[in-house]
Amino acid sequence: MTGFGHNSEDEAEGRIEALAEMMARLPGLGPRSARRAVLHMLQRRDLLMTPLADAMHDVAAAARECVQCGNLSTAETCAICREERRANGEICVVEDVASLWAMERAGAFRGRYHVLGGLLSALDNVGPDDLRIPRLRGRIADEGVREVILALPATVDGQTTAHYVADAVEGSATVSTLAQGVPVGGELDYLDDGTIGAALRARRSL
Amino acid sequence: MALAIETLTLSHFRSHRAAELSVGPGPVAIHGPNGSGKTNVLEAVSLLSPGRGLRRAGPGEIARRPEGVGWRVGAVVGRHGDRHAIDTRAEPGATRTVRVDDKAVPQVALGRIARIVWLVPAMDRLWTEGAEGRRRFLDRIALSFEPTHAEAALAYEKAMRERNRLLKDGADDPAWYAALERQMARSGAAVQDNRLHAVRRLTEAQAGAVTAFPAAGLSLTGDDPPGEEALAAAFRNGRRTDMYAGRTLAGPHRADLAALWAEKGVEARLASTGEQKALLLSLVLANARALAEDLGTPPILLLDEVAAHLDAGRRAALYAEIEALGAQAWMTGTGAELFEALREGATRVAASEDGGASLLRAA
After folding, report:
1. Are B176 and A127 in contact (CB < 8 Å)?
2. Binding residue per annotation — B238?
3. B283 and B304 co-located in one domain
4. Where does the Toprim domain start and stop, copy by copy (chain A) (predicted)?
């Protein structure tokens, strides 16, 4: 370590520490795992760290909201909205991009999405104008949508938003919501009473 | 065998630094001078059920001072030969966590293991003070019959706070009001159903009992239109007046519990202090009897300073009823003589203060 003055050595240490602290603010990482990640990257500087930094730089500059649905994309219109096959007359309304990704991961839905960008909450100062509800009405007419599927959380805010959206699109398309009940592969013994009640109310004949 | 705590361990819990109690299935009588930590033991037991316990304290208030290292309550609870180890604790600045049989579970899971019903001196003025206390009393009883009552009440509160904000802001968006009111009506109707069920079960349990305690005729009153449809209509039609008030003026949050001392035809609030206490005890015992019928075991009862307002005859009658019910009733009192009428099988504990910490020993 010759050639480094005491001060610049401290400074270099400080920058690595600052990077670890920034990483620790990411979801799923704590101070220890962030330091481990930084160390891991430093040991693979050319293979991992520099390409990662470049990719982050590119995405930070290019990422934007899809003008149609609000999904994240690096183009004006996202890949799902560009794909003609997905214009099947169904639109799934979700709270945020994380919900959209969860739906896509399941691979069960073949239509298009509409990301609201939040939930109605007077206490959090989120009103209808902050959500992409007028745009949804426009899309129903433009894209010939027959069914709007509400995939919103089963919380008070989620259900308030669901009722509000259902009211806003009433008459222009059929509105449905996701079912609530027993999870696939789930045992009744472990379910909370509210879920069992909801599952019973939503029962269907075999 | 009925639901009962077998061992109870307290660590840095209010006045208790470290305490361990082994208790039998019958009544548990804790006696000792003021400030010796008797009620704290009952509070610890109350935290084996969901919620904030019998003092409605936040987790930060419970930790023993000056250490401030957090607190822990452990218990082995038995019921029909089934045993569960419950551990509930809070680290400083954190919320309370619960483990059952060494697995982390949500608080509501406690309701499925132990139903716990209590009566504390703060409830002595229940009939003379505001409706809020009576609603809370009724809601706890409703919760003891129906564990989902808490979720319905929370959903109603949350939707109402949202609506109240719209009212205060003078918002003019009928669809937004309608969306919130639908949820208020649905959860509010569930709250009403649970409360009505509780009142009905208490009434039945009082009617069928041979007891030394006066029966209370219960009814629900207040600005609370019954049923989902009526609630929805009241919210819809009340928007203008509610906006002037800046809050929701009708609904389950405005309900009240009225009690009539049935035998004398006198409203509970007009009865003597002792009679009011007797009425409350009568309701708590009715709650326990109804739960015993519904679940096959009586709940655990926590009766703080219960002997204070009762004469010797009523006290003996209370003990006899508890023993007949087979409930594990935890009771406190300043002197051992208050519990002389209890039968042999009772667990007797003496509480005292020793060098800044409470001390519990078998008596």
Report:
1. yes
2. no
3. no
4. 89-183
* Secondary structure of residue B97 in the 3-state scheme: strand
Query: Where are chain A's structural domains?
Result: 2-62, 84-205
Quickly tell me which residue has 């639109």 as its tokens: A91
Residues B206 and B326 in one domain: no
Strands B71-79 and B4-13: antiparallel
Smallest CA–CA separation between A36 and chain B, in Å?
A: 27
Answer yes or no: do A120 and B176 touch at CB < 8 A. yes
Q: Looking at the partner chain, which of B161, B173, B178 has a beta carbon nearest the beta carbon of A123? A: B161
User: Full-prediction pTM beyond 0.95?
Assistant: no
Q: Would the pLDDT of B118 be above 80?
A: yes
Does A160 sit within 8 Å of B159, measured CB to CB? yes
Encode chain A in three state secondary structure.
Answer: CCCCCHHHHHHHHHHHHHHHHHHHCCCCCCHHHHHHHHHHHHHCHHHHHHHHHHHHHHHHHHCEECCCCCCEECCCCCHHHHCHHHCCCEEEEECCHHHHHHHHHHCCCCCEEEECCCCCECCCCECHHHCCHHHHHHHHHHCCCCEEEEECCCCHHHHHHHHHHHHHHCCCCEEEECCCCCCCCCCHHHCCHHHHHHHHHCCCCC
What total number of domains does chain B contain? 2
CATH code of the domain occupying A84-205: 3.40.1360.10
Which tens digit of pLDDT belongs to each residue from B4-52?
999 999 999 999 999 999 999 999 999 999 999 999 999 999 999 988 9
Whole domain around residue B183: which residue ranges? Answer: 129-298
- B78 and B171 assigned to the same domain: no
Whether A84-205 and A2-62 are alike in CATH topology: the answer is no
Q: ipTM for the complex? A: 0.77
Residues of A in contact with B180 (CB under 8 A): 160
Using the beta-carbon criterion (under 8 Å), do B106 and A123 form an inter-chain contact? Answer: no
Q: Which CATH class is domain A2-62?
A: mainly alpha
Nearest to B280 by CA among B266, B302, B259, B311: B259
Give domain status of residue B119, yes or no.
no
Domain of residue B333, CATH code: 3.40.50.300
Given CB atoms, is B169 within the 8 Å cutoff of chain A? yes
